[in-house]
Design a protein that fits this description.
single chain, alpha+beta, 5-stranded antiparallel β-sheet, 11 helices, 31% helix, disordered N terminus
């Protein structure tokens, strides 16, 4: 009896060491770190799940984090072919005179769009930002209207822009949640240009300036985004990191120094990577199941999801995850590609975590009269 009790005690200790209680359940994760910031948010990129937040919907002066939206609008113009990286931009006196951080472009010179983008992203050049805004919108005021339109399209309901730089204005603000939304959109929509956010230095006009995102030099998993600072906004940082296939976005607003904003951002990222995990459940456009189609040119129809389906969970809870499919009882041709024919349900234990439409991955036209006749007869025996 004593031997059995001794073994049971060691078994319980082993479970605790492995992160489970005596009943085999995962231990509760600790609360997120307490940050000295006006607002913050930590979000998984793939699923959008928020892992930590404080005052994330408070409207705050974003300083140069504004340039994420400036970049998004410019990237969209590039993607749609309305401007090009090699375009020569005539530098106005307004752009040249804009105060704050600078790329040191000269008035009445012509500078390529690509150079201005790098000056804006890497050096946080206000002059480069204004030059780009004028090139796209004609004036910075019109460009700000484009920024607000794009914010609405992305669902950024707590943001408003009056300039392309983030220089202080009473009606210029963003929320930490909106900044994370914008960061996800940049990575998702413009992966080709996102790599510029990881560049640590840029030289223009004989002047080399270094990226103010200290995390780029402290943690190799960090590959973006943008810093911001004014006296009224404090020190802000939107950052993103990828570890073992999981990407997180951290937004920290209104800290006391460049060192603190880097420390607090890294604390958030480390917390997310340590206690959570994101995995792909189903890949977009890949067959989840196949179903019988009646009276069609083809009998088999693959069903799948329009977009990737990933889930973010506390580490140690993956064994509780399950999924189920519900498909329309009888499917008769014609079937169009993308037609909704069922539902995928993902459960965590006995709780429904999410549902997604199950759609036709290919079209199935009506079969010949002979195929339809045969299926009509077979349907009586199905």
């Amino acid at each position: 009896m004593k031997s059995r009790s001794f073994l049971l005690s060691w078994y319980c200790l082993l479970l605790l060491f492995l992160g489970a209680d005596a009943w085999g359940q995962p231990l509760p994760i600790p609360a997120p770190p307490s940050l000295s910031a006006k607002a913050y948010l930590l979000q998984d990129f793939a699923t959008g799940r928020v892992l930590a937040e404080s005052q994330a919907d408070e409207r705050i002066e974003p300083a140069s984090i504004t340039k994420l939206m400036t970049a998004y609008v410019v990237f969209k113009e590039l993607k749609q072919g309305r401007i090009h990286l090699a375009d020569e931009v005539l530098i106005s006196e307004k752009a040249w005179r804009t105060g704050g951080s600078r790329t040191f472009i000269e008035v009445n010179t012509r500078v390529p769009v690509e150079t201005l983008i790098k000056g804006m992203i890497i050096q946080s050049g206000n002059d480069a930002s204004v030059a780009l805004a004028e090139h796209v919108g004609g004036t910075e005021e019109i460009f700000a209207a484009l920024m607000n339109q794009q914010a609405q399209l992305l669902g950024m309901t707590g943001s408003h822009f009056v300039n392309s730089t983030g220089l202080p204005h009473s009606n210029h603000y963003m929320t930490a949640r909106d900044i994370a939304t914008l960061g996800r959109a940049i990575i998702r929509d413009f992966p080709k240009y996102y790599s510029w956010y990881s560049e640590q230095a840029f030289t223009y006009n004989g002047i080399t300036q270094y990226n103010r995102n200290l995390l780029l030099r402290r943690d190799s998993s960090v590959d973006g985004f943008k810093t911001g600072h004014t006296n009224s906004a404090g020190y802000c940082l939107a950052s993103s990191a990828m570890r073992d296939g999981m990407r997180l976005i951290a937004v920290v607003m209104g800290t006391g120094s460049p060192k603190i904003r880097a420390q607090e951002s890294l604390a958030l990222l480390n917390y997310g990577f340590r206690f959570y995990d994101t995995r792909s459940i189903y890949a977009a456009k890949e067959a989840v199941t196949k179903v019988r189609v009646w009276q069609g040119a083809n009998k088999d129809l693959p069903l799948g999801l329009v977009d990737d389906l990933s889930v973010t969970l506390q580490r140690g809870r993956w064994e509780e995850l399950s999924s189920s499919l519900r498909v329309q009882n009888t499917i008769t041709a014609p079937v169009t590609e993308g037609q909704n024919l069922g539902i995928v349900t993902v459960n965590l234990g006995d709780k429904v975590l999410l549902k997604r439409p199950l759609v036709a991955l290919t079209a199935v036209p009506e079969g010949s009269w002979w195929q339809r006749l045969i299926d009509w007869i077979l349907s009586f025996f199905a």
